[in-house]
Structure to design on (128 residues):
């Protein structure tokens, strides 16, 4: 059992609170990323010293830099996935003609492109 509220039972106030919590969390992460990026710019990794304190701070710094790197990669991956989904939606199969709706939309039936069209085949990693 979890304390999660089923979607059908979620009130408008509870939804507002969830959005507020999400915005606070995003703001906190953005602040950490900005601080880590600024710190890395001002103190390159090879200048972090070798005292125990420096070692711990170096570990924290490397962790934050890794967090920045992963956050950036994750954000880019999400953007790429969304772009690929939009292309798939655009180049969908027409159920009646079996053609790509986008590639065939202007000149059908004089110019029809069978589905999957070259764009979809390229996204799927298939050779021309
Ligand atoms: Zn197409």
């Amino acid at each position: 059992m979890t304390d999660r509220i089923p979607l059908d039972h979620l009130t408008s106030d509870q939804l507002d609170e969830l959005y507020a919590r999400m915005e606070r969390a995003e703001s906190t992460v953005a602040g950490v990323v900005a601080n880590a990026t600024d710190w890395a710019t001002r103190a390159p990794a090879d200048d972090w010293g070798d005292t125990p304190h420096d070692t711990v701070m170096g570990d924290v710094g490397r962790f934050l830099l890794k967090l920045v790197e992963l956050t950036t990669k994750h954000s880019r991956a999400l953007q790429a996935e969304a772009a690929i989904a939009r292309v798939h939606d655009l180049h969908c199969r027409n159920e009646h003609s079996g053609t790509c709706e986008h590639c065939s939309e202007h000149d059908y039936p004089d110019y029809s492109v069978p589905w999957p069209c070259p764009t979809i085949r390229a996204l799927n990693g298939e050779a021309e």
Observations:
- The CA atoms of residues 4 and 10 lie 10 Å apart.
- The chain has a mean pLDDT of 82.
- The helical segments are 12-42, 52-90, 101-104, 118-123.
